[in-house]
Amino acid sequence: MLNFHPLTPALMDDLGEVFRGNWGRSCWCLHPRLTNKQMDALPGTGSMRERRRTAMAKLAGQERAPGLIAYQDGMPVGWVAVAPRAELARIAASR
């Protein structure tokens, strides 16, 4: 059975575990949320991966979580981003 929990800053390491070993590890699921220009303008120091992780952690600290982490037997095994279309810049700009 899967259990789902809204992403919070405290669960960022669990999200990293879900993304481990694939492209999501460096994207942090921001691709649909931000345009290339917005990605390049992410504040902070460090690698783009670190800046994206920080940006997702900031989103996770908002009242509405940016998505849900799925757990099976207490282990993080899945992720789904959830947001109104207006918050997904690439999707909102698409036809």
Short description:
The chain is α+β, with helices and mostly antiparallel strands and 95 residues long.
Description:
- This protein has helices spanning 12-19, 24-27, 36-40, 48-60, 89-92; strands at residues 2-6, 67-72, 75-81.
- The protein is of the alpha+beta class and 95 residues long.
- Helix content is 36%, strand content 19%.
- The longest helix has 13 residues, at 48-60.
- The termini are far apart.
- A hairpin with a 2-residue loop joins strand 2 (67-72) and strand 3 (75-81).
The largest pleated sheet is described as: 3 strands, antiparallel
Sequence stretches where pLDDT stays below 50 over 5 or more residues = none
Instruction: Identify the strand order in the major beta sheet.
Output: 1-2-3
Task: Give the rounded overall mean pLDDT.
Answer: 92
Shape annotation = globular
Cα-atom Rg, whole angstroms? 13 Å
User: What is the tally of helical segments?
Assistant: 5
**What share of the residues does DSSP label as strand, in percent?**
15-25%
Number of strands: 3
- Which bin fits the share of residues in helices? 25-40%
**N-to-C order of helices and strands:** EHHHHEEH
Features:
95 residues, alpha+beta, three-stranded antiparallel beta sheet, 5 helices, 3 strands, 36% helix
Please outline the helices and strands.
Layout: E1 2-6, H1 12-19, H2 24-27, H3 36-40, H4 48-60, E2 67-72, E3 75-81, H5 89-92
Antiparallel strand pairs: 1-2, 2-3
